[in-house]
Design a protein that fits this description.
By secondary structure, the protein is an alpha+beta fold. 30% of the residues lie in helices and 26% in strands. The protein has helices at 2-14, 18-31, 38-91, 180-187, and strands at 104-107, 117-124, 136-146, 154-162, 191-208, 215-216, 219-220, 237-245, 251-259, 267-268, 274-275. Strands 1, 2, 3, 4, 5, 6, 7, 8 and 9 form a nine-stranded antiparallel sheet that branches. A two-stranded antiparallel ribbon has the order 10-11. The two termini are 76 Å apart. Residues 269-297 have low confidence and may be disordered.
Amino acid sequence: MVRVHSTLAKAAVDSPTGSRRAARYRAWLTLGREGFTLLEILVATAILALILMTVYGVLSRALYAKNHSEEHADLYASGREAVLKMADEIEGSLPPTAGPNISFVGIPGTENVPTDAVQFAVVVRRQMGVSQSRGGRAMVSYSLDPVKDTPNLFALRRQEQMLTEAPPANVDDGSDSADPAAETNSQQPSVLAAYLLDQVAGLRFRYLDPASGDWVDKWDTTDVPPPPQVPVGLPGAVEITLFLADANGGTYDFGTIVDLPLYALPTPTPGGAVTGAQSLGGAQGLGGTGGGLGGPN
């Protein structure tokens, strides 16, 4: 075919009108080479679609892995921070002998979903100022409140009620100057409540009985036993377990065991004698607030 075309082209050039015919012939030869056939276009389109699908799959998996790791990193950080905050405050619980209205109460929740609550007295330390609440002795409680329109999920609620009265706002010392910070602190509410976390699937507390060495699900120092039994003091240790749920329905637990150093303070008996707390041989080796933080189940 190529040989025939070359022979015809040579003959066309040798003819009298060879120049015009040669130009038309060269234009005819190149006319079929300027486009693609339908089959070529379909094959190219299919190859491009496969390449784009592969790139999209790789990018979508990378984006999912990035979002998944960021979500779980935030979940782990929030769970550890909440558990350590509760442990730090529970560690400083005051014994019932520290004064009036001082108690430690642990309330068990339901069996299917752990919704325990705890209330204890602690010394809250703050720097007094215009934008900050005053410190002092306070009753602090941790509990769970249901999240609206979200079944089986709760919000972790911290409530603080001051036990010590605020100092008087105005003291007549012969001066006309008034402290605006003192006036602001005297007007601040004695009860403060805030939600620390949402997406909480459960909260469990267990208490170590110093007398028996057993872990129990409830504790109440307000119960007054009949004489000659000794009133209940602080537990030897508290186990905290917080359950958090992610966006995919998975549940992760974060827990620690915190010792209560003030549990060993002497407890007054109804007859006026002072009884020391029994020593716990099995309580040795319990972790502090930094140990035992768990990851996923």
